[in-house]
C-alpha cells in the first residue's frame, strides 16, 4: 500500500489550484494525507463532503484536541493561545460570535457602503493625482489599505494610527518576513489593541471595541484577554484574504478582456463578477479543519474518534458535479442550487462575509471606471505570487494606467 501524499499540496502555478484535487475528486474523494510532522489526516475534496464536514456536530473545531490537523509548526504553537470563537464548538462558539455579529450583519454593512465607497474613491483619487510615471504597486497603494481602513474604522482605531497598524499588519502577513519579524509585528498589534481596550474602559465610544468593553467585560461575561484576542482576530483574520482577492480580481479581469469590457460598460455587474471570483479563487482554502469526537462515516470511509479531517473548500469550488467546466472563469455562470464555498459553510461560515462582498463589489464597480486603462506594468508570467503551498495570493502588482 502506497504512502499517503504530503499535504498541503502545491498549486500547479501562481493561480491554478493543486492538480491533486481534481484527481482525488474522481478517484478517492475522501483519502488520507500526511502532514508536516508525519501525522495522518483525512482529506475531503468533493463539495457534498466538505459541506457535511462543516455541519457535523460530531466534529470539533477546538485546536487543542488531540488529533486536530495542524498544517505547520507555527500553527501547532498558535493553537495553544487562548481561543476565539473561530476555534470553539457549540455553545461557546455562538455565544462569543454573537458578541460582535451585529457589526457584520447585512443590514449594518449596507449602512457602511457610503463610507466604503468614499474610502475606495479617495485611495484611487490619490493614485491618479500622483500619476504613474513609474509603475505603482497596486497592493501597497490600494488593495491593502481598502480592507485595512474599513476594519480599523469598525474597531474604532484612530486615523492617525492607520499607518503604524498597516505597517505591522504588512510585516505580519508578508511572505518575505521572517518568523521572528512576523511574531514581533503580531505582538505589537496585540499590545496596541490592549491599550485601546484599556482606553475604552475609561472612555467608551461608538465602536466594536467599546461594545466588547461595555456589554461583555464590565458585566464579567469575558475578561480583558478575551476582548483583546477577539479584536485582534477581527483586525487580522480576513485582511490578507481580502487584499489577495482584490489583486486576484484585477488580474483575472485583465486575463478575460471581454468580461472586463462588460464590467466597464455596466458597473452593476460587479456583484455577479464577485460571486464568480470567490468561487474561482478560494482566498482562504486551508481553514476548514476538524477532529472527530466520535466515529463517523464520510464518503464511504470510516473515520475514528481522534482523527483529523481537512475539508478543502478550494477543491469543492472546482467540483465538476456542481460547477460544470469549473476551471473556466465565467461571471455569467448559471447559479446552481449548491453554492460556492469561498466564505465557508455552516455555523463557522465567515462572520464578515457581507462586509467582504460589499468591499469587493464597490472596488470592482469603481476601479475600472476611474482607471479604464489600468494594466500590468510587467508580463503576466512575472507576477509575484504567494508560495505555492499556501493560500493563493499576489505579493506585488505593478500597474500603470
> Which H/E pattern describes the elements?
HEEHEHHHEHHHHHHHHHEEEEHHEEEE
Low-confidence stretches: none
Number of strands: 12
What's the gyration radius in Å?
21 Å
Mean pLDDT: 94
Spatial sequence of strands, sheet with the most strands: 1-2-8-5-3
Which percent bin holds the helix content? 40-55%
Question: How much beta, percentage-wise?
Answer: 5-15%
Q: Given the C-alpha coordinates, what overall shape results? A: globular
Structural class by helix and strand composition: alpha+beta
Largest sheet: 5 strands, mixed
Distance from first to last alpha carbon: 56 Å
Number of distinct helices = 16
Structure in words:
This protein is α+β, with helices and mostly antiparallel strands and 401 residues long. The protein contains 16 helices and twelve strands. The protein has helices at 19-27, 47-55, 73-78, 92-100, 106-130, 138-143, 145-155, 162-173, 179-202, 208-217, 224-236, 239-255, 257-265, 270-280, 313-316, 353-370; strands at residues 30-34, 40-44, 59-60, 136-137, 289-292, 296-298, 301-303, 308-311, 375-376, 384-385, 394-396, 398-400. The strands form four sheets. It has a five-stranded mixed β-sheet, covered by helices on one side. It has a three-stranded antiparallel β-sheet with strand order 4-12-9. Strands 6-7 form a two-stranded antiparallel ribbon. A hairpin with a 5-residue loop joins strand 1 and strand 2 (40-44). Helix 5 (106-130) crosses helix 7 (145-155). The radius of gyration is 21 Å and the shape is globular. It starts with 18 loop residues before the first helix and ends with a strand. The relative contact order is 0.18. The model has no long low-confidence stretch (mean pLDDT 94).
